[in-house]
Structures are given as structure tokens and as C-alpha cells.
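User: Here's a structure from my thesis project, written as C-alpha cells. My advisor, Dr. K., wants to see whether a designed sequence matches the one we expressed. Can you design one independently, without my sequence as a hint?
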């Protein structure tokens, strides 16, 4: 792009000479008048360098280059003049519509040197502009982030969050338990999924508060369903690694459970496998504390990242949740199928039960069953449900 040149002159002989001389070194196009030049830029532009003769019958070179400047301000514009037009050429340079002028007859080396200079100038200006744009984009991104953070903080204070509950079913397709999934009901932006705000909460340190809010809602819900006698199995809560590592986590957990009168038998903590890679001793201690409270521990998103079947033995968990990415790749007799079957049999030999996430089709369900899956979760069975829908689901699943 930086060597695209347009040469405009009404003398055919001049154009032929220029073309012969320059076509090997530059991508050069020619036009015989200002009007033709403008049409060419419109059609094939932008050009990085435009060189124009001064004296042309209708639109002269100065007028033409002024128009080029309006149309493509970044183009480097050079005027070719006779000795008699020097005053006008200098005037055009001073007015800013021309960068440089050359006088006729112009030796080929001088023309080449001018074009080279112009091409370099063009890339320099272009590069600077791009850098300026990038830094402008960054400023906008930063401003957006600050704005989102302010909104998230306010949303926590105003409690604009709601838990949805997605059923997990056993191999026969019967209800087993729920996973609680958070939604942000923003008055200005509508319902927002956790993938949009959990990372921001984690990056800004708001996750402890947000996680506490979720845990609290789930305990309130469990207490409510216990009161009315709806058998919800367990409620699984997602715990961010950062939340888990907080020194106050065990006390906050105890206080919340005590306040709502729920015990660990009602709960399951979903912790991503990657969390168990980081701060290992703290995490191991937390897992022990959860187990002491009879809270089940599920290893979430198993299989993504640096997982290994070998590590399953080291992590003290009750459940493994095979990530959706594996379920998507399930096909009869495929490598994907054998990987899933191997995870299931390895987990079973360690006394760990296995849940498959993101089950969307009858075929996936059939293959998972064949591989010995314990539980399944996904749109094939049910979307995440709001409380009233989850209650209706529970009542329905209870009836024979
Ligand atoms: P996750 O724990 O892996 O949750 C499963 C996600 O998969 C949910 O997305 C769920 O709606 C979605 N899903 C369920 N079945 C299907 C299916 O068949 N197909 C597809 N394509 N997706 C399915 P969601 O609700 O957007 O949650 C995303 C992630 O946000 C969760 O992933 C979890 O890591 C995090 N999250 C959700 N709630 C909380 C929370 O209260 N606290 C924390 N710390 N993280 C949460
Ligand atoms: Ca989860
Ligand atoms: Ca998951």
C-alpha cells in the first residue's frame, strides 16, 4: 500500500515516459486530468502519493491537489511545475495542499528520490496515527472498565443479583440436585450472565463480596425449600479460587449457614480444577474445612487447562464435572469417547462420581450412559431455571 502512486499529467508523452521509467519500481497509475485523477482515487484509492502537473486545461494541479487533500488527507501530494509557475507552487506549499514541488524538466533520479521520500513520509504518518488510535482505544477501554466496575459495585450494594437453578439428573434422567448460577438483573442493561461480570469481579477484588452474596442467597433458598418440604437434593455453589483463598472464607461460610439454619448436607462447592493448581496448601486446607462441614466438593470444568487424571488422586474431591468441551466432541468409537470413558472409570476407581456438563443431545446422553456416567446436566434436560420454575420442576419430578 505504501508504494501506490498516482501520476496526473495532460501530456501523453510525459505519462508514457513516467510509466516506462517507474513501473518496475512502484505501483504507478496515470490519469490525464484532475477530474480523471479524482475518479481514479474514488475507484481505486487511497493512494499514498499523488503527483500532479501544474498546468492542465480545466482543473489545474493546485486545484486538483486541494481536492485530493479533502478526499484523502493522508496522501502525500507533490506538484510538478514549470519555472514560470514557481510563485504559485510556493503558495500551494504554504497553504498546505502540497508537500513538495518539483520543477520540469525533472530528471528521473530526482523523481524517484521524491517518490521514495513521499512513500516513507506516508508510512511514518500512518504509523503514528495508528499508534495514536491504539492509545485512544486503550483509553476508551479503560474508561469502560472503570464504568463497569462502578456499576458492579453499585449492583452489589443494591443487590441486583438473582440465582438460577439448573437441574442435574442421574443416568436414568431423574432429578438429582441443582447447580446455582448467578444472574445480574441490571435495570439499565437487562439480564447479564456471570461470564461477563465474574471475571471483572475477580480482577477487582469484588469477588469475595459477590461470592458471599451468592452463598447467602443459596443458603436462604435451601432453608426455604427445607421449610416447605421440597426435596432439592443439594445446591451446588460456584466458588471462585480467589474467594476460596480469602482468610475469612471459613468464618463467613459458617456464619451464613448458621444464620439460615442449613448444614453442609444441603450444599456442594464447585471449585475449578485450575484453582487446585495455584496456592496448593491453602486450597488443600479449605477443601478439608469444607469436607469437615459435610459439604460435597465438585471439581468443575475438569479436562480444560492442565488437568491430568493422575492428579485426581491428590485432590480431595467427591465429584468431577467433565467440561462441556468433551461432551461436544463425543462420538461413537471416537478418541473423545474413549477419553471420557477413561475419566469415568479412573474416577470410579477412586470413589469419585462423575457429572457431564453441557449435554445437549439425545446421542450425547446415550453415549455418556454407555460410558458409565453418574449424572448429567445440560440444555437437553433443562435450562437454568428461576426459583418459581425450579419449584415447579421439583414438584413435577416428585410425581411418579
Ligand atoms: P460453569 O460452572 O461451568 O456453569 C455452567 C455454565 O454452562 C452455565 O453458564 C450454564 O448456564 C451453561 N450451560 C448449562 N448447560 C448447558 C448446555 O447444555 N449448553 C451450553 N452451551 N451451556 C450450558 P453461566 O450460567 O453463564 O455460568 C458461567 C460460569 O460463571 C459458570 O460456569 C461459573 O464458572 C460462573 N458462575 C456462575 N455463577 C457463579 C457464582 O455464583 N459464583 C462464581 N464465583 N461463579 C459463578
Ligand atoms: Ca459450575
Ligand atoms: Ca463447569
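Assistant: Designed independently from the structure alone:
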Amino acid at each position: 500500500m505504501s508504494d501506490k502512486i498516482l501520476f496526473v499529467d495532460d501530456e501523453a508523452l510525459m505519462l508514457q515516459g513516467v510509466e516506462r521509467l517507474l513501473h518496475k519500481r512502484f505501483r504507478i497509475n496515470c490519469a490525464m486530468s484532475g477530474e480523471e485523477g479524482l475518479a481514479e482515487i474514488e475507484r481505486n484509492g487511497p493512494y499514498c502519493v499523488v503527483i500532479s502537473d501544474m498546468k492542465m486545461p480545466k482543473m489545474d494541479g493546485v486545484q486538483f491537489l486541494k481536492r485530493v487533500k479533502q478526499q484523502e488527507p493522508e496522501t502525500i501530494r507533490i506538484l510538478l511545475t514549470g519555472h514560470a509557475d514557481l510563485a504559485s507552487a510556493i503558495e500551494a506549499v504554504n497553504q498546505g495542499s502540497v508537500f513538495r514541488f518539483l520543477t520540469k524538466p525533472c530528471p528521473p533520479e530526482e523523481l524517484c528520490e521524491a517518490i521514495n521520500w513521499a512513500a516513507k513520509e506516508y508510512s511514518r504518518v500512518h504509523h503514528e496515527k495508528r499508534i495514536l488510535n491504539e492509545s485512544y482505544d486503550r483509553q476508551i477501554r479503560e474508561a469502560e472498565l472503570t464504568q463497569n466496575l462502578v456499576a458492579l459495585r453499585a449492583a452489589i450494594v443494591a443487590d441486583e443479583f438473582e440465582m438460577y437453578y439448573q437441574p442435574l439428573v442421574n443416568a436414568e434422567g431423574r432429578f438429582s440436585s441443582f447447580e446455582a448460577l448467578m444472574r445480574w438483573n441490571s435495570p439499565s442493561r437487562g439480564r447479564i450472565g456471570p461470564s461477563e461480570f465474574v471475571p471483572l469481579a475477580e480482577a477487582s477484588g469484588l469477588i469475595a463480596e459477590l461470592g458471599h452474596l451468592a452463598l447467602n442467597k443459596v443458603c436462604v433458598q435451601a432453608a426455604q425449600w427445607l421449610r416447605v418440604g421440597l426435596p432439592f437434593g443439594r445446591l451446588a455453589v460456584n466458588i471462585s479460587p480467589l474467594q476460596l483463598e480469602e482468610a475469612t472464607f471459613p468464618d463467613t461460610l459458617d456464619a451464613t449457614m448458621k444464620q439460615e439454619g442449613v448444614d453442609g448436607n444441603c450444599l456442594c462447592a464447585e471449585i475449578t480444577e485450575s484453582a487446585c493448581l495455584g496456592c496448593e496448601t491453602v486450597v488443600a486446607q479449605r477443601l478439608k474445612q469444607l469436607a469437615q462441614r459435610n459439604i460435597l466438593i465438585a471439581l468443575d470444568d475438569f479436562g480444560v487447562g492442565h488437568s491430568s487424571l493422575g492428579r485426581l488422586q491428590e485432590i480431595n474431591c467427591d465429584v468431577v464435572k467433565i467440561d462441556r468441551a468433551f461432551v461436544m466432541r463425543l462420538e461413537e468409537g471416537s478418541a473423545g469417547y474413549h477419553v471420557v470413558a477413561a475419566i469415568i472409570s479412573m474416577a470410579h476407581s477412586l470413589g469419585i462420581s462423575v457429572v457431564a456438563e453441557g449435554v445437549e443431545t439425545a446421542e450425547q446422553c446415550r453415549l455418556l450412559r454407555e460410558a458409565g456416567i453418574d449424572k448429567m446436566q445440560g440444555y437437553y434436560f433443562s435450562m437454568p431455571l428461576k426459583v418459581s420454575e425450579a419449584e415447579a420442576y421439583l414438584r413435577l419430578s416428585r410425581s411418579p
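When you compare it with your expressed construct, this may help: The longest strand covers residues 175-186.
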